[in-house]
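Lecture notes, unit on binding sites. The following record was shown on slide 14. It pairs a sequence with manganese (II) ion.
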Amino acid sequence: MKKFIFSNEVEQALKDNKPVVALESTVITHGLPRPENLETARAMEKAVRDESAIPATICLLKGEIHAGLNNDELETLANSVKAIKVSRRDIAGAILKRLDGGTTVSGTMTIADMAGIKVFATGGIGGVHRGNHMDISADLPTLSKIPIIVVCSGAKSILDLSGTREYLETEGVPVIGYQTDELPAFYSPTSGLKVDFRFDKLKEIAEFAKIHWGMGLSSAILVTVPPPADSSLPADYMEEMINLAISEAGDRQITGAATTPFLLDRISKQTDQRSLKSNMDLLVNNAHIAGQIAVEFYR
Ligand code: PSU
Ligand code: MN
């Protein structure tokens, strides 16, 4: 296995058993437009630091795996027009072909696990797509295999949320609500679906993970956090916007890995960028919560 390139502070924190939070990078390369992508990536790193944890943004640069980026590297990634979207199946190919890559939730979890990181923040996980039920994100089977706390705002409402919820149940991935009884639907705090357990204190979430993994269970723990109230959007309005975008994707025959980035871009345009603002705010909020959970976990 090729060695990773760690930032100095990530390497030191891992050695000293200090709290580290992994951050994904598909959101930087494919999920957000420029320049908001770099702005958000920096804001997420700052949010983790504000909670006294160390951010480890994970990506590939010229075929080398990075965990923790300096300013120049983050900028290079954010401006890389040729960066590919790297899910777990793509890591070896990106190494061999010396590519730049933004890692998805499944790609980031795979690398974070090799590095020994236990907490990870993202916006939303991939899931079961509507319409094509064979289009299931690699994020889901990866969540069933890798023991890491994944802090997110649920899965995007562009997905079949109840199908996604069922998949997580089948695969034994606990779905926790932080201060909510309901699975958030990314831009909206509500989805009509229940979480498995609600916890109001982050300390309880860290304890939950220790008990779960202490029994030898090796799945991830999905911690879902509602989007911040001041920029969240009503579920029925978003449903309308999403249906529009999905029908356009169908007309244009967008499929496979291109589907999620296409839908996000369309929805942002249709909502006058209100969905973009909501997306950015919830990413930063989730990074704060993940930083606090990491601190609790390593206490
Ligand atoms: N959710 C977002 N923005 C994103 C993604 C999800 O708000 O950019 C990315 C994540 O990296 C996730 C990936 O892992 O999309 C899922 O892609 P797919 O559906 O092709 O598996
Ligand atoms: Mn897919």
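Take-home: The chain has a mean pLDDT of 96.
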